[in-house]
Specification:
The complex is a heterotrimer.
Chain A: H1 13-30, E1 44-49, H2 54-66, E2 70-75, H3 87-95, E3 101-106, H4 111-116, E4 122-128, H5 134-148, E5 155-159, H6 166-177, E6 181-185, E7 201-203, H7 206-210, E8 220-223, H8 229-232, H9 239-246, H10 250-253, E9 262-263, H11 276-280, H12 286-305
Parallel strand pairs in A: 1-2, 1-3, 3-4, 5-6, 5-8, 6-7, 8-9
Helix pairs in contact in A: 1-5, 1-12, 2-12, 5-6, 5-12
Chain B: E1 16-19, E2 22-28, H1 30-47, E3 54-58, H2 62-78, E4 83-86, H3 96-99, E5 118-126, H4 130-142, E6 147-155, E7 167-171, E8 179-183, E9 192-196
Parallel strand pairs in B: 3-4, 3-5, 5-6, 6-7
Antiparallel strand pairs in B: 1-2, 2-9, 8-9
Helix pairs in contact in B: 1-2
Chain C: E1 8-15, E2 21-26, E3 29-34, E4 44-55, E5 57-62, H1 75-84, E6 87-92, H2 103-116, E7 120-123, H3 139-144, E8 151-152, H4 162-171, E9 178-181, E10 195-196, H5 199-204, E11 208-209, H6 211-228, E12 232-234, H7 240-251, E13 256-260, H8 262-266, H9 288-300, E14 305-306, H10 335-344, H11 351-366, E15 383-393, E16 412-422, E17 425-429, E18 432-433, H12 436-441
């Protein structure tokens, strides 16, 4: 496994499986009374957030602390271009404090990869612009796997603002690696350029997709947050029309197979992309996603950091 | 007091093979492994007064299979169902930094927990003692047993910590650079214990401890 | 202007890549052409060894950053880069700080150019006041000034308002001016758009800059140019569709010319995959199909000129995430090598064709009388001598620019400028600048 996690595409299928398997063990630890493990004692993890995100930051913070790492949060919002400090200056300044890992969130695509060119420590992408959010994809896959088992051959539908979604990009990459089929559903204005070359199917018709007419029976559906400002950008006419066309409303819920879980990376726009009936029903695994987030991030930090002085050994034992 | 291994005349058992590990010699064959486990099971019943309050915690990967086998034997010999679980110690190891990350094994708490129980940790090879130390730490996170004992299939010496086993299948004097390998039919081709030279391409059960 | 220069005798040079001859430069002009010329007593003799002699290049599109960002480039450092790159004339873009929208600024830039004395610096005047796209700049005053501005451009910004565009095209007609348009519909591609809209922008999650944002503006502008009977120049054409529109407009007799940058002739958008802002440029790098169409357009003359869009940026303005970094690339010293690689080594142009696109037509578009002239006796001695067989490694630290943002760092480029002459005076020689002072001492 490489020293950094920048993209879901960085993970081979065996590596992704090992992270998810380890996350199972972390998940079990989460329900114990004593949640503290000594594994990363003496390691320092800095959450370097150029963009606010309480959930992701807290999730990484708890994950690091339960592994006994020292976790420091640095909000670098507005410290970059506007103040005249370059991204390089900021990254080098933080790394110079003797950091073992940087967990970076940035509003600009590729910013996290850029930072890896300047620092020696491990770097985890906690969301870069409209590019990727690999730990979100891992936690989505983890939650899904817990609910519906092995994802190979399963059909996951992702609906919403795909153009501007780092969650969608990472999910398409990881789900494909894990052998799942993905269908992206959005109006043409919210379909990413060049999506035809991605490893997934696409559709403009949510009803047909959920009914299994587009890419076969649906095993899970992920609703993405739709930013209200997309409306002023002319991506769709009104919230009403979006909700009717692409929202997971009670009528559409009936099209979805009874055992297909519903995911949402949060925060939800109730009444827009998701109805309360969908968000709060039995099929919703939204809260489990949050819980899974800590386990998955513990697993990621463990695999990136615990053996940092030594290249990771071959992952599987072989029988003599 | 550590139990003594049955020091059978070994010439019959020592064979050389030319596996991928280069020179190696088998020290326990399948029938030896079975006999050794029988004996440990009897010793456990004897030392714990019939297995009352006993919980076996196998250390993955091979220690967990050994714990399964011991539990089955204890049931057969003493008509008692001891508690059975698994304890992965990876996250408590002190050598991750130098030896690298490895995938996590499973931890399964026995039904009924470990509080107030007599926990017997089960592993395949006792070497430096670092796995046992990590297991004692990991155990802390699960609860507070009445006492803790250690059972191993092979004790190969070279301890780096003040740790000893309560039940030993076979004491095996080795050179530090040799590797002791345990095969179990659950995941390997057959039951056996053999010694390989360090030329081995990768570390195995005798090594990471 | 530079003082009277000593004589230079070029031996064994091949004008436009033709037959080997000697060329004598005296009194700022080409004094004699022929074989085995007699060297006057004070003449500097330079044996070209069969090197190619071309009219010095004319750049229609250079950002010299002065006034305003003298840490990134000055008129002097940019002039040096030009002389080393074989240029005899640079058009200094108007997007300085303050903007070149008044007589004072354009005359100051022209004066700084004369003072440096390495190339003729022709200021470009802004179309609109402050490049704001609202009110015309003082086009007439700048045209009539000592700087004699002929090219007007809001480059960096598109003159997107159709009415302002129409008025500007009409207004500059009496001055024989040309409007150089940065074609980018700001509603289709705003300032955040930094990657070709397509597979690359979708994959990298970068805001897409669609080809149509350029093509639709060019289409509108050629119609406005036809309507007004004025003269339009299209800056940094980057797409196959733009080439088609311009080809169509020319076939209708519309007075439109166009330029392409060296980087758009060689680099493709897949270079963005590593998010390195050295590849961030406006318009963005495009896919290989566009590069092929641009080369074909330059070869058949649909695109008239190669213009560098030399855009120096201080390192700290590039040390950001891709989306936050400044747009632009250096170009003056690498232009020749890139054009040779893209056009000559592919047999799309010969050396006369290269001179046409890098000197003759740009001079005509900018109404620069002394440049882009034939190599015959009596013409101004604005020349560059090129070794077509040499190759060199691009090392950013060795460039004359104050900035380092070349996308060609580490590449081996073909052809090398041996010497450049401005009105008979040597301005660069063997990769070194020859200042006017040194010249006097020779």
């Amino acid at each position: 496994m490489s020293r950094n996690l920048l993209s879901a595409a960085d993970l081979s299928a065996p590596e992704a499986q090992i992270i998810l398997d380890s996350a199972e063990q972390m998940y079990a630890i989460q329900s114990r009374q004593v949640k503290k493990l000594p594994t990363l004692r003496g390691r320092t993890v800095v959450n370097l957030f150029f963009e606010d995100s309480t959930r992701t930051r807290s999730s990484f913070e708890i994950a690091g602390k339960w592994l006994s790492a020292d976790v420091i949060n640095i909000s670098a919002k507005g410290s970059s271009v506007s103040k005249g400090e370059s991204l390089r200056d900021t990254a080098l300044t933080v790394a110079a404090m003797g950091v073992d890992a940087l967990v970076v969130r940035h509003a600009t695509s590729g910013a996290v990869q850029r930072i890896t060119e300047w620092v020696d420590c491990s770097v985890v992408n906690a969301g870069d612009g409209t590019h990727e959010h690999p730990t979100q994809a891992l936690l989505d896959a983890f939650s899904l796997r817990r609910r519906i088992g092995d994802l190979a051959g399963r059909h996951v539908v992702i609906v919403g603002d795909l153009t501007h979604s780092r969650v969608a990009r990472s999910n398409v990459l990881l789900l494909h690696t894990l052998g799942a089929d993905v269908t992206l559903v959005a109006p043409p204005t919210l379909m990413p350029a060049g999506v035809a070359s991605w490893n997934c199917a696409t559709s403009w018709d949510l009803d047909a997709t959920l009914s299994g007419e587009v890419n076969g029976v649906v095993d899970a559906v992920m609703m993405l947050r739709v930013q209200r400002e997309r409306m002023s950008g002319g991506y769709f006419p009104t919230e009403r029309e979006y909700a009717i066309s692409y929202g997971l409303n009670p009528r559409r819920l009936k099209l979805l197979p009874k055992d297909a879980p519903i995911l949402h990376p949060g925060p939800m726009n109730r009444g827009l992309e998701i109805s309360s009936a969908a968000a709060d029903g039995d099929r919703s695994i939204v809260l489990d996603q949050v819980k899974s987030g800590v386990a998955v991030r513990m697993s990621v930090l463990y695999h990136l950091l615990a053996g940092v002085d030594q290249p990771a050994p071959v992952l599987e034992e072989v029988s003599p | 007091m550590p139990a003594q291994s049955n020091s059978r005349p070994s010439s019959r058992h020592i064979t050389t093979s030319s596996s991928t590990y280069g020179d190696s010699k088998t020290v326990l064959h399948a029938d030896d492994v079975a006999r050794v486990l029988d004996r440990i099971a009897h010793q456990i019943l004897e030392k714990t007064r019939g297995g009352a309050d006993v919980v076996l915690l196998g250390i993955p990967t091979r220690g967990a299979y050994l714990a399964d086998r011991l539990a089955a034997r204890i049931r057969a010999f003493g008509s008692v169902d001891v508690g059975l679980g698994m304890l992965d110690v990876t996250l408590h190891r002190d050598d991750l930094r130098t030896r690298g990350v490895r995938p996590l094994g499973k931890t399964i708490e026995p039904a009924g927990g470990i509080d107030g129980k007599l926990v017997i940790l089960v592993d395949d090879v006792l070497f430096s003692g670092r796995t046992a130390r990590a297991a004692l730490d990991a155990l802390n996170d699960l609860g507070r047993p009445r006492s803790v004992q250690l059972a191993v299939l092979v004790d190969r010496g070279h301890r780096e910590l003040p740790i000893r086993a309560d039940y030993v299948g076979k004491n095996l004097p080795t050179a530090r650079e040799e590797q002791v390998k345990v095969s179990l039919s659950e995941i390997d081709d057959e039951d056996s214990v053999y010694i390989a030279m360090k030329s081995a391409p990768r570390s195995e059960s005798g090594q990471p401890e | 202007m530079t003082g009277p220069s000593a004589a230079v005798l070029l031996r064994n040079a091949r004008p436009f890549g033709g037959a080997v001859t000697d060329v004598l430069l005296t009194g700022g002009v080409i004094a004699e052409i022929g074989s085995k010329l007699e060297a006057p007593g004070d003449a500097e003799v330079l044996d070209g060894g069969g090197a190619i002699l071309l009219p010095a290049f004319v750049d229609l599109h250079t950002h010299l950053r002065e006034p305003g960002r003298e840490d990134a480039e000055t008129v002097e450092s940019g002039s040096a880069a030009g002389a080393l790159g074989g240029y005899g004339c640079l058009h200094a873009m108007a997007n300085t700080d303050p903007v070149a929208d008044t007589v004072e600024i354009v005359e100051q830039v022209a004066r700084l150019g004369r003072h440096a004395g390495l190339v003729d610096v022709r200021p470009v005047g802004a179309v609109s006041k402050g490049l704001a796209g609202e009110q015309l700049a003082e086009i007439g005053n700048m045209a009539r000034s000592a700087a004699a501005v002929r090219i007007f451009s809001d480059d960096g910004h598109c003159v997107s308002d159709a009415r302002l565009m129409r008025r500007a095209l009409e207004y500059l007609k009496p001055f024989d001016g040309v409007l150089a348009q940065h074609a980018q519909d700001p509603r289709l591609a705003d300032s955040s758009c930094c990657a070709h809209e397509g597979e690359i922008s979708g994959r990298l999650g970068l805001p897409g800059w669609p080809a149509v944002a350029e093509e639709s503006v060019i289409a509108r502008d050629v119609m406005l140019t036809e309507h007004t009977g004025s003269r339009l120049h299209v800056c940094h054409v980057s797409t196959a569709g733009s080439v088609e529109v311009i080809r169509w407009a020319k076939s209708r007799g519309i007075q439109v010319t166009a330029e392409v940058t060296p980087h758009h002739l060689l680099l493709t958008c897949d270079l963005l995959a590593g998010y390195d802002p050295v590849y961030k440029v406006n318009p963005p790098l495009r896919p290989a199909e566009d590069v092929a169409a641009l080369r074909a357009g330059l070869a058949d003359g649909t695109i008239d000129a190669v213009a560098t869009d030399h855009a120096p940026h201080a390192t700290h303005d590039k040390d950001h995430a891709f989306g936050d970094a400044a747009f632009g690339m250096l170009g003056l010293q690498t232009a020749l090598g890139v054009v040779v690689e893209a056009m000559i080594n592919t047999d799309l142009l010969d050396w006369a064709g290269l001179a046409d696109r890098m000197s003759i037509r740009p001079a005509r578009i900018g109404r620069v009388g002394e440049h882009g002239r034939p190599i015959v006796v009596g013409e101004p001695a604005n020349l560059t001598l090129v070794d077509p067989d040499a190759s060199w490694l691009v090392d950013p630290d060795q460039l004359a620019s104050l900035s380092r943002n070349t996308p060609f760092a580490g590449r081996i480029l073909p052809a090398r400028v041996l010497a450049t002459f401005l009105r008979g005076r040597t301005t660069s020689r063997d990769g070194r600048i020859v200042t006017p002072d040194e010249q006097v001492l020779v």
